[in-house]
User: Fold this.
Amino acid sequence: MVGALERVVGESFVLTDPDLRAPYEVDWTRRFHGSARLVVRPKDTDQVGQVLRCCHEAGATVVTQGGNTGLVGGGVPDRGEVVLSLTRLDDLQEVDTLAGQVSVGAGVTLARVQEHAAASDLHFPVDLAARDSATIGGMIATNAGGIRVLRYGSTRAQVLGVEAVTVDGRVLTRMDGLVKDNAGYDLAGLLTGSEGTIAVITRARLRLVPRLQHRVVALLALDSIEVAQNTLRRVRTAMPSLEAAEVFFADGLDLVLEQTSATAPFAAPHPVYLLLECAAREDPTEELAAALEEVEDLLDVAVGTDAESRARLWELREAHTAAISAAGVPIKLDVSLPPARIGAFLARLDDVVAAIEPAARSIVFGHLGDGNLHVNLLGADPADYNLEAGVLGLTTQLGGSISAEHGIGRAKVAWLHLQRDPTDMAVMSAIKGAFDPDGRLNPGVLFPRR
Ligand SMILES: Cc1cc2nc3c(=O)[nH]c(=O)nc-3n(C[C@H](O)[C@H](O)[C@H](O)COP(=O)(O)OP(=O)(O)OC[C@H]3O[C@@H](n4cnc5c(N)ncnc54)[C@H](O)[C@@H]3O)c2cc1C
Assistant:
């Protein structure tokens, strides 16, 4: 198979040497790793089709990889699969300013799409801290959320079309970008969030929105999660320009200050921090200040109006993922809850964790505006799945989701039954079978390995 693949993509784009394969074989958290038979790096859709045909004929299993920033072990090999890396599919088409859309290759990073749209005074509204590495293909495959979902929706809401290659190398094209198109099943919608289990996404047609130049960020110090939620309720109602509402806590901020060069925002620590960002055609600072005047129990506030001061405040939130990973190999759980249950979840979390592993500690942060909390467990054996069972069990008891935005990957396959009933699982399995009857694409992701 190596020779056949080399003839398709060129010798230097088939990596068999263990040192060259190594970065593709471990995930961002270092929790998930395995060995690849080889890594293949096609440059366009035609090559992806030929590569998949070769793998199909050889009966090889394939793991698709974009920027390898996924947090649930879905993009790294497990047991000798071929890694299909798509970072060379990095073509950016001219922005269609009439439609407010752009077509891009699956391997283009989020940051490049954002810059490209900005050059036409438009904006790609999904944003997340891994923007310099995460690819559009990976974001569609995971239906990535991020920090602006409360205003613009997740990646799904921005996908107007996709091109994808099936396991046997056929190309499926839905790239016309029609805003209204009810001709049959929404296959682009089905591929969004499919985690590389049914086809390989090679291009996408994306929705862009107007670029809002005037921004303000406020970091509020508060006493409790209940006060944070009440504050968010008021600001959300008062300010249609609200784009982000992020939460973190004293222990997470301590870790960020310890592990990075960031400086403390306030003279003294506080229990809860709520970061708000508003963006509009005109400066929203005064409107935000007026909305915050109504907030009782505000312990302190720091405001960023220029790009530099806004970035300083954002760093305190965005550096959490890296600071946690620098402190150890975390068990990362990404849950969402009905807003009314967030307080109950946080009140019970530490007891649930301590009952299973007294040495573990939890660091929580997340997208409060979407009811999405990232629970990071440090000080535990990363292979201890009892902790996941405990925390995800608590989540579903409270009516939440075991995966808000990162996906199921390999990490949460064993817990999907907590949330999806047997009929639901059977329908999903039938869809997988229709696209990939032999289970060759991302084996062990979303469904148990056969
Ligand atoms: C610091 C940091 C912050 C993050 N913040 C957020 C956040 O706020 N919100 C959020 O949702 N996520 C976040 N993530 C997770 C991650 O960035 C997203 O899941 C992202 O969408 C993954 O993109 P990727 O290109 O790195 O995909 P990969 O990690 O390479 O792959 C992820 C999954 O998608 C599949 N896949 C990749 N490309 C394709 C393709 N072209 N076709 C089919 N399947 C494919 C893979 O097989 C795998 O199952 C964060 C990660 C880090 C490291």
The first strand starts at residue 14 and ends at 15. The chain has four domains: 2-85, 101-210, 214-321, 328-405.
